[in-house]
Amino acid sequence: MQKIELRNALPKVFAGQPEIKSDVWLRPVTFERGKKYLVSAQSGGGKSSLCAYLYGYRTDYSGEILFDNQNTRNLTIREWCLIRRSKIAYLPQELRIFPELTAYENVEIKNRITKHKNRNEILAMFERLGIADKTDSLAAKMSIGQQQRMAIIRTLCQPCDFFLLDEPVSHLDMHNNAIVAAMIEEEAARTGAGIIATSVGNDLKIKAEEVLKL
Length: 214
Fold this sequence. Notes:
Elements: E1 3-11, E2 28-32, E3 36-40, H1 47-54, E4 61-67, E5 70-71, H2 77-86, E6 88-91, H3 103-114, H4 119-128, H5 144-156, E7 162-166, H6 174-191, E8 194-199, E9 210-213
Helix pairs in contact: 3-5
């Protein structure tokens, strides 16, 4: 996938509002593979909705969303499965971890499908993010910040054309924010992927080529 386009897209819940001040809603917007974007919003501005639309979880919007000129409303379930397996690596705000599994098992459950990283590479990411001692800990026993770092590792275990990251560092300090940004930028540079990251306040410290306000 080389580009994602929005054409006059708007969440239906926003319909009828007198004035929409946004760089995304009701605008022509193009996200290109290989480029880095930060989508900044106030709480309630629709950033999680935007991610859900791009990932095909929700369709309650007007306008169009296109992947390489194909309207996403016309994609089959089979096509969506392929996109989610190899085109878009999504980190949702709510993380969607399995609390009954260990930290390593939460990552491995993704990597068994993709076979994108080997065990040493995964363990090196745990080490780099300061949670090497948590690999065998139940996810339910980890802090929210540790869970978020684990979920980031899981996201990096997927080949993709775009990283779609919804508030990826909301529970991290500046030190870990910088490490996460470096890891994501390195992986994106290695694979040629684009980065679309959303934020309410604690921005992912990537070198964004474009900042859009919702």
